[in-house]
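notes to self, project folder thing:

trying the whole complex as one job this time. last attempt i did each chain seperately and stitching them together was a nightmare. two parts in total, labels are on each line so i dont mix them up again. if this works i'll redo the older ones the same way
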Amino acid sequence: MIDFAKPSKDINIERQKLIDASQLHGIHWLVLALSAVLTLGAWYLANEQHNKNIAERFQRESLQVIELVKERMLVYENALWGAVAHIDANGNAPNNRQWQRYSNSLQLEKKYPSINGIGIIFNIQREQQDSFIRAQQVDRPNFTIHPQHNEAELWPITYIEPVLSNQQAVGLDVAFENNRYSAIKQARDTGLAQLTGPITLVQDAKKTPGFLFYAPFYNNLLIEDTVAARRQAITGVSYAPFIMYKLISGTLAVDRRHVTIEITDNGQHLYHDKDNQDADMIDPKPLFKDKFKVNLYGRVWEFNISSNLEFRADSASNKPYFILIAGVIINLLLFALFSFLSKANQQALAYADRVTRELKINSQRLKKSNQDLEQFAYVASHDLKSPLNAIRKLVGWLNEDCEDILPDSSKEHLALLNNRSERMNNLLDDLLDYSRIGRKDHQANEFDLAEIAQAIFNLLDHPANFTLSVEKQTICLPQIPFEIILRNVLSNAIKHHDKASGHIKIRYQMDPGMHHISIEDDGPGIPSELFDKALEMFQTLQPRDKVEGSGMGLALSKKTVEHYGGSLTINSDGINGTTIVILWPIANNAKQNA
Amino acid sequence: MTVEKKEVSLFLIEDDDVDAMSITRSFEKMKLSNPIIRAHDGVEGLQMLRSGAVPSPFIILLDLQMPRMNGLEFLEQVRADENLAQSTIFILTTSKSDEDIAASYQKNIAGYFIKDQVGEEFLDIVKMLKGYWKIALLPEQ
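result (full assembly):
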């Protein structure tokens, strides 16, 4: 009997799997941790990449600013050299009118924005001062040289265009002040365009920092490329004054850049955005800052460049945060999924356990009721036998003792009484056998089918012209229960045969995992609709008075085969014989099912 | 063979009247004159043995399933009683159980018979007893 109450090893393993699956394990946490690490990593990398990008951008913008300033200065330098070329081409210094024409043709406003003007400064010696002034006063009666100073030479600004906005500069002797003077000397000595240090232009009412840009020109006596020769041949410089903030505004409009600029020259303040009207773009805590030293025409300008608010706004990127948030969401979803799965498994486990418990209770109940039934059948049949035996004996005694005085009819009645008692005895025997199936498990052993079948057949009370054919075949089965079955089936075949002679054929074949034994007779057969009935307990297909039988044979056989995990079926067309097919699991299976 | 053997009594301990009757009838059939003394259960059996109601020599034919004291319990008592321990006892029962058979022989019974298998009216048993008495020597008590 299969013990339902005790779960098999496989089921325990399955259950353990379910328990395992219903808990969050190291692997789950590992996946979550990896996912978290990936998220943070991706976020970190994206952030790094972004920071690198904006750092590069800042670098680019800074360099661009410097390049623009340099480019612009080159343009102005070219204008100054243009003036020098003009003077050289004319062979002599231009007069005021000529300069006016020249500078007009330059279209300063249009071509050289942010330049405050373009002019000529002549180099004259103290002794030439008066004649120079007189010469200039021919055209401009108000022309004077100012202010006074103690240098041996003079460098008066002689022409400047447009004159209107540079009135104060006309006649200004740039040697009066060191920044202006030293740069002009430097230009003279090097023959290169030069800048002054930071100064305040006299024409700048706002008094903001500015500078002058000089390009020297010499007379045609300059043949040697030496400082001394240059000093000898110097005639003057073309020059341009600049107001720093105008220069920067024109060059680097704030809406075209994303950096704040501060420029100093040798520690002296030249330009700062905070002095400009664009101060609102300054970032009090800039993301990036850098310093660049730029050599410009004899000066070193130090650019302090820092990112401004616009840069900050432009460089703010949500991408790393999107990555972070997406990662966190994925992590949460993973966690939810794991939790859900484990919850589902827990529920499945709880359900399985509940069903198992119910099944266990049911199977215990079933087992108990089966046992009770078997016990009942056993006790009932056993205990019923004693009184039955007593009845049979008493009938016998009555027969013996009253043989002479009983009428024939009474004798016949007593014979019937005896016969029915006999029948009841057989019934009880079979019932007892039936209830005993499963009480004892017989081990399989090897035996010869033909030998066993022949022995059983010979023991059965059969008419002389009944034959049995069976092939020799060694099989391994629990022999005792098999014999009981064979006896029942063979006995049925003989008992129910409708002819005087008959033949029974036993065939064997091995199916996968099963012994296949068929017992075929040539009797009257069983109609298919009666198959089920034939297999039930206490069912006979013929009146018991005609064919003596308890009706237990097939039921007993079927129950026995099924106890060992096999099956018993009836095959018949209802006319020509019956075949009983027994399928019996091959040894291993038989043991497992026992 | 000059010594006349004392007639052996049969002490039948059997609760079923019909079974008891069967033995009696068989004795009559076999023309056996040995006295049959009957007890209905183990308790009564022991009592009769101890009170000397059963004349020696005797053999006991004992049923196993009986009310009050069953056959195995009776065997236990008899073998433990030094006056009765040597009694010759046959078992006549309906029980085919291996345990019963083993337990009975454990108590030194002389034979174990199953009621179903000893023929109509236990004739085989009675035949056996007849032969047994003829050749077996029994202890005097």
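what i see at first glance: The mean pLDDT of chain B is 87.
need to look closer tmrw
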